[in-house]
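Q: Predict the bound structure with zinc ion.
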Amino acid sequence: MAQQDSARQTAEGAASAPASAEPGENLEFLDDTVDAGEREQAHRERGTARPITVVGNPVLHRRCQDVTEFGGELAQLVDDMFASQRAAEGVGLAANQIGVDLRVFVYDCPDDEGVRHVGAICNPVIEELPAERRALDESNEGCLSVPTAYAPLARPDYAVCRGQDIQGKPVVVRGTGYFARCLQHETDHLDGYLYIDRLSKRDRKDALRQMAEGTPRYETVPND
Ligand SMILES: [Zn+2]
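A: Predicted complex:
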């Protein structure tokens, strides 16, 4: 996911969610804030940045394959994804955004208190929220695969994402604010959907127009 579009930020979203009554309160959430900067740096220094696929590339428009092998190849892919995310100044990146058909995403994203979260999730699933926990936030959203475009998109301002870490251990990550948006956006990628697929026809057209008029500041994979 692209960085927050502060200049064109729409009105602040709905009231922030209460801290109590978390869905699945018995869950053990992963603390992905510890040593966030050091972990992100270690990953990206081992990795190589790759060009980013853009809307129209088939790998972005179909469901990716489940991760079943949690070895050195996956670790290298995740390192390359962190390097690519940094090179493109993104806050989240799914494997198919560097052309790899595998259900894994990485993130380096601030939450609604500005706290930095860094991690990688394999085989992610976004948990359904109970109705009373669904407060929509209508911030702008952008995507490295739709370069230079932004559009407001209503999404729940809180998200719980279940999956596995790169060793295959089950993990549950929760996010607020822009990080909640990121968890949903990246999981959508691995299901074969871009955020523009959730926009009205008119807003989608406008986003594609912004993309056509802009020039990305990072390398992209040309579409045939
Ligand atoms: Zn994206």
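A: The first strand starts at residue 92 and ends at 94.
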